[in-house]
């Protein structure tokens, strides 16, 4: 009897080992050291599938031990690993597949915008395929098929564009280039145009309070741009673009592997838009005359445990706008109103990492970057010269404590030196010819996975600012999967920002509101609390997967530098918040890939953004109350043709309060719809595409107030809420070797 019980016990133990659920965790990186976001993982016996998140990390659940894990990434050799209940945390290195493949036929299709299932943060990854579905000439045009990020003109004269995330301007979004802070300060106005679309490998959009690893400046989220990597890019890629509006563009990038350990990539861009347009007849150009040269060179050096990258970038751009001469009487008292902006920008960075213990994911990294930005501007009679230098350093240490615990720590330093010159503003007390800001900080981020379906990530950083003193940034993120098909996320955290009102708002110079400029003498550091939650469900539908998601985010300001254009129709005031300011967002989204050839996505977003102006809590101006989006993409079975269409439904909103005695504009703007479409013909190494933007030729009427008298008190080119140019037909080609 005892012997039978012992045998039964051993049988139960063996069965439990065979069918016990266990977690398979790890990271996937490329041979050169970059994180392999979007790699596909299969557990063959458990039949579970997952993709790596933006950090290359993955987590799967298996109920059969042993099991077989297969890792797949297009262009790289697949890897197969045996796993069991006691397997350690995995570190997988993917090696580039041989280039001696004549033809590859893709028979399955995945969505070109991914939401990594096991990422702790609410993140969207916009892949290169998504960037080719519309006329993606640069970063500012990369979000036309995205429901989360809005892009609009800051004014109707300079062509400057700004993004909005969670109902707030892009100054509250931390912009990163390969996880290095960028597009800040002087580059915040035109920086979105400095990243050509064909150079980008992917874009990651993270909503809510982000990780403390990259600083304290993220209030509504982070947007990170990943450029093409020399170890994975094609030997040569050419992208040519032209539109009927007169824009011409050429992009070239190449990758060379000089040795087993050293590779380099070279990027070149040239664009111009020199055709004069004045379709609405207001006497001003509808679009600025542009010319841009852009060069970027990066180097990769890899060893078994060491990775080093160095990059250098130079941008030169000219922008001209203003009145046209036709029908105008030119005199010395009233010459033509002209805008001339010339920019030279240089960037350099180095990223170095050393793996101390691969089994424990223990590594140390040092990131250094610097930039120089020089801008000469003339807005009518207002001259404005700007120089800014930035130095940034970040030292990071990461390690797994055990299978359930991970910690990241680091030290950082950031310095901005800003010089401004303007005879028009020199007498204003708030106009500082020289401002130097430096911030030193330290952070720690702890990740805890007490259960196989629960992740808790807590971050804390402390920083010292030479003007604002010491402050603390806490952030908390949760991810919970009650079942495999349901993912819940929540986050809460603080964000801070140092405002520089003239540098970040010099588009306001295209307005005579500056004649009544007021800047409070004691502007404080901005601070806000962002909190929110999301739910994502994956539903099997006729052999395909329907993805449904819903999210809510709210940003509450403790302190804000208010740009007040609501109190006086002829003035602009910068002052500290005196009352409440918040932004609330609800977004619903559904997507599915049907028939392995049709990708459909629909979304709807509601926004309620309000700020206290002169004692009254009012809607933030120039912000749509809702946005709807429908995108559809169809590919023929062997991927020879691709058809894409996008419709944006933009809701109404509030305009700055007009003058009660002399109203020159309405107090609100109406809803409007924008439609775009594109057809692509693909050959073996060549793609030809034609498309149309703003198909129904909708433009905002009278985008420039008092355009007939730009020297008068009423002139204002900053009242832009919709498109300033009409239908645009374009075409181009993409070729790679």
Could you explain the architecture of this structure?
The protein has 737 residues and is mainly beta. Helices cover 4% and strands 55% of the residues. The protein contains 3 helices and 44 strands. The protein has a 22-stranded antiparallel barrel. It has a 6-stranded mixed beta sheet with strand order 8-9-15-16-13-14. Strand 13 (173-177) and strand 14 (180-181) form a beta hairpin. The termini are far apart.
pLDDT < 50 runs, ≥5 residues = 5-19, 98-108
Measured between the Cα atoms of the first and last residue, the distance is 74 Å
- Helix fraction bin: under 10%
| Sheet having the most strands | 22 strands, antiparallel, barrel
Quick structural summary:
With 737 residues, this protein is mainly beta. 4% of the residues lie in helices and 55% in strands.
Descriptive labels:
737 residues, mainly beta, 22-stranded antiparallel beta barrel, 44 strands, globular
Task: Give the helix/strand layout.
Layout: H1 2-19, E1 22-30, E2 40-43, E3 48-51, E4 57-62, E5 67-72, E6 79-83, E7 90-94, E8 113-114, E9 123-127, H2 128-131, E10 149-153, E11 161-165, E12 168-169, E13 173-177, E14 180-181, E15 200-207, E16 221-227, E17 236-243, E18 247-257, E19 262-273, E20 289-302, E21 306-322, E22 338-357, E23 362-379, E24 382-402, E25 405-421, E26 434-451, E27 454-465, E28 469-483, E29 486-497, H3 501-504, E30 517-519, E31 526-541, E32 544-559, E33 561-564, E34 572-576, E35 581-594, E36 598-613, E37 616-619, E38 626-635, E39 641-650, E40 653-654, E41 668-669, E42 672-682, E43 686-693, E44 728-736
């Amino acid at each position: 009897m005892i012997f039978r019980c012992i045998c039964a016990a051993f049988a139960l133990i063996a069965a439990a080992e065979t069918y016990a659920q266990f977690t398979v965790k790890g990271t996937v990186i490329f041979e050169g050291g970059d994180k392999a976001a979007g790699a596909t993982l299969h557990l063959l016996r458990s039949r579970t599938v997952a993709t790596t998140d933006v950090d290359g990390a993955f987590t799967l659940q298996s109920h059969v031990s042993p099991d077989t894990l297969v890792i797949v990434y297009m262009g790289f050799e697949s890897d197969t690993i045996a796993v069991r209940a006691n397997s350690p945390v995995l570190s997988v290195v993917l090696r580039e597949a041989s280039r001696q493949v004549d033809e590859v036929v893709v028979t399955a299709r995945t969505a070109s915008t991914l939401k990594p299932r096991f990422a702790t943060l609410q993140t969207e990854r916009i892949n290169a395929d998504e960037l080719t579905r519309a006329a993606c000439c640069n970063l500012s045009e990369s979000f036309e098929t995205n429901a989360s990020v809005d892009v609009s003109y800051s004014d109707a004269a300079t062509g400057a564009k700004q993004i909005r995330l969670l109902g707030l301007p892009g100054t509250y979004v931390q912009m990163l280039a390969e996880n290095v802070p960028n597009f800040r300060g002087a580059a915040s106005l035109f920086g979105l145009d400095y990243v050509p679309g064909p150079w980008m490998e992917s874009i990651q959009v993270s909503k809510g309070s982000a990780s403390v690893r990259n600083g304290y400046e993220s209030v509504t989220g982070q947007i990170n741009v990943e450029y093409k990597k020399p170890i994975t890019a094609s030997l040569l890629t050419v992208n040519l673009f032209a539109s009927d509006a007169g824009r011409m563009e050429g992009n070239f990038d190449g990758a060379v592997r000089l040795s087993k350990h050293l590779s380099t990539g070279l990027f070149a861009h040239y664009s111009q838009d020199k055709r004069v347009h004045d379709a609405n007849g207001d006497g001003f150009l509808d679009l600025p005359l542009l010319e841009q040269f852009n060069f970027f060179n990066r180097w990769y050096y890899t060893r078994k445990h060491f990775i080093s990258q160095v990059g250098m970038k130079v941008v030169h751009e000219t922008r001209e706008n203003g009145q046209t001469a036709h029908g105008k009487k030119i005199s010395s008292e009233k010459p033509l109103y002209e805008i001339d902006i010339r920019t030279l920008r240089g960037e350099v960075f180095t990223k170095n990492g050393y793996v101390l213990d691969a089994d424990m994911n223990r590594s140390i990294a040092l990131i250094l970057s610097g930039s120089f930005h020089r801008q000469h501007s003339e807005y009518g009679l207002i001259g404005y010269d700007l120089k800014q230098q930035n130095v940034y350093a970040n030292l990071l240490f990461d390690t797994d404590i055990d299978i359930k615990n991970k910690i990241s720590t680091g030290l950082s330093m950031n310095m901005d030196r800003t010089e401004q010159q303007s005879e028009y503003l020199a007498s204003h007390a708030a106009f500082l010819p020289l401002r130097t800001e430096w911030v030193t900080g330290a952070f720690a981020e702890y990740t805890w996975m007490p259960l196989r379906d629960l992740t808790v990530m807590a971050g804390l950083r402390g920083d010292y600012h030479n003007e604002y003193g010491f402050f603390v940034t806490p952030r908390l993120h949760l991810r919970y999967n009650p079942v495999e098909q349901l993912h819940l996320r929540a986050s809460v955290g603080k964000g801070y920002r140092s405002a520089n009102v003239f540098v970040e708002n010099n588009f306001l110079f295209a307005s005579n509101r500056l004649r009544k400029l007021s800047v409070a003498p004691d502007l404080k550091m901005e601070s806000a609390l962002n909190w929110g939650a999301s739910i994502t469900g994956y539903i099997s539908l006729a052999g395909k997967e329907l993805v449904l998601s819903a999210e809510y985010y709210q940003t509450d300001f403790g302190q804000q530098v208010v740009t007040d254009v609501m109190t006086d129709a002829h003035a602009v005031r910068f002052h500290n918040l005196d009352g409440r300011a918040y932004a609330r967002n609800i977004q619903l989204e559904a997507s599915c890939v049907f028939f392995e050839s049709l990708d459909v996505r629909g979304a709807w977003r509601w926004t309620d953004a309000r700020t206290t102006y002169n004692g009254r809590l009012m809607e933030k101006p120039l912000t749509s109350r809702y946005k709807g989006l429908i995108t559809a993409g169809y590919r023929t079975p062997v991927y020879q043709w691709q058809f894409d269409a996008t419709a944006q439904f933009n809701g109404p909103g509030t305009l700055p309060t007009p003058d009660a005695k002399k109203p020159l504009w309405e107090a609100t703007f109406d809803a409007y719809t924008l439609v775009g479409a594109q057809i692509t013909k693909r050959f073996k190494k060549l793609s030809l595409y034609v498309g149309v933007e703003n198909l129904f030729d909708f433009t905002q009427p009278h985008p420039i107030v008092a355009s007939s008298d730009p020297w008068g008190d009423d002139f204002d080119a900053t009242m832009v809420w919709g498109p300033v140019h009409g239908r645009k037909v374009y075409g181009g080609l993409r070729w790679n070797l």
